[in-house]
Amino acid sequence: MNKAILIAATVTLALPASAQNIDKAVKAFKAGDYDVAAAQFYSVLRFEGEEEGDIAEAQYGLAKSFEKLGLPLAALKYYEDIAKSGNDHPHFDDAIEGLLAVGDTLDDDLKTPQILDAIYTPENENALRKMNPEVLQRVHYTLGRFMFNRANFKEARDFLGTVKPGNPKYPHAQYMLGLVRLGVGRGDNYAPKYEQVVEHFEKARDAIAKDASDERLLELRDLASLGLARTYYEQAYQLDEGDPKRNDGLTQARREFLNVPRFSDTWPQALFERAWAETVSNNYGKALGALHSLRAPYFGDEFYPEARILQAIIYYYNCQWDRVNTILEETKDSYGPMTKTLQGLLDENFALDEWYPLLQKSLKQGKDDKSDKLIPRSVAFAVTHDPKFAKMERFLREIDREAKVFEKNDTFKRSDMGREMTDFANDTRDAYLALVGKFLKTKVNDLNGELNDITTRASIVALETKTAEADWLEQGKEIGGQSRARQPRPFIPDDTFQFWWFRNEYWVDELGYYEFTIKTECFE
Predict the structure, then answer these.
(1) pTM
(2) Which among 23, 359, 434, 482 has most CB atoms closer than 10 A?
(3) Structural domain includes residue 406
(4) In the chain, how many domains are there?
(5) 389-440, pLDDT tens digit by residue?
(6) Is residue 54 part of a domain?
(7) Of 231, 180, 234, 238, which is closest to residue 202 (Cα–Cα)?
């Protein structure tokens, strides 16, 4: 056969076969055979002679198939391709909605916002504005959060303000607006708009149904309560002592701290911050009770080094110098070696992709291990409790999970698509490990600075205590050597409370309700 005829015959035979792939892919998708559909859609994209319309359908079909298969990261890759091609793509609107859906699944506040920011151009803006208003508002929420994280507060406020009541992102947008008005990340020169902050946090909380079961919404509601408590406390703390508004604000702050549900993820932080509010309100027994709860085995992996300083301050205010000195010595003995270890690790200049494996090794060490080659166990657990890190780690685990799917799925592992997507997952993991490493290095450095600050503050309190003790002796008061009698039990608010002496046993139903009785030993 003539060579030219042979080539022509091959092309003639190949075109109809390839053209049928899109029909086969659509048929498989409608039948719910999403892995087969994905493979077929991918084959259309691989064929160079395919028509533009079929390629557009295949791009969207492939992204949707991955989404249906529970592979949001893979879906994100192809939704991004569509979105970046611009509003001329027939599935541009669908891709934006798909990006939002998989972004929510991934709880992604990094990649998805970057994609949406890249396509929010004058060329696409008119098309975006014509989208379904609910979808557009979700886009605006995502961009608003992205702008907030980049410290672009004006644009953040403008985007977030477009999200209307009834939109699924409305409570989230209101919470973020509260942070914007509060001035989080703006520095000391910003004057918070406290009334507006309270309004935004209350709207965020009220927009979440009382019978909501979605964990992210429940967490947001708790964060709104915590935000309200912090706002009332910050505003009241700036007022002069004796100002009735100060007392009212502190009372509201304590009430909101108590609104954070017991055993929620936010509860330990609320307990700690309530202890500060109680201290400033001169409710020393309640403050010590809150700190006492944080020492329970239930909170064994929580890390609140500043709690020791607060406890010492409370005893300082009550002139119990021996207790102050004991706590300060314990503080220095605990955190001094930690700062030395952390500084040593920071000086090692690890590659960014070495930090996450280091963290994993550090989490496996026992409570009594003191290796200077690992992050101290309590610090390592504090890092894992950081909400931003938790998101990053979930994303990393999703990368690993999807890579295994492409390696093991019978349809995928025999195809070029399976190999390409496995490589994509591995490349994404390598890049993301560096990002996680950068975060971990910064976090460890920040915690090291915090611990250094605490040991410095301990030294300052110790110096002030020595001065107070000297004044005490000058006034003829003896230091130490006196036994302290058991004080009367604390006030019982109503019949729903029962009183039990603490007998060195922590009971989970008592956590958060402890209260000390403490008598001042200062001269009248």
Answers:
(1) 0.90
(2) 359
(3) yes
(4) 2
(5) 999 999 999 999 999 999 899 888 888 888 899 999 999 999 999 999 999 9
(6) yes
(7) 231
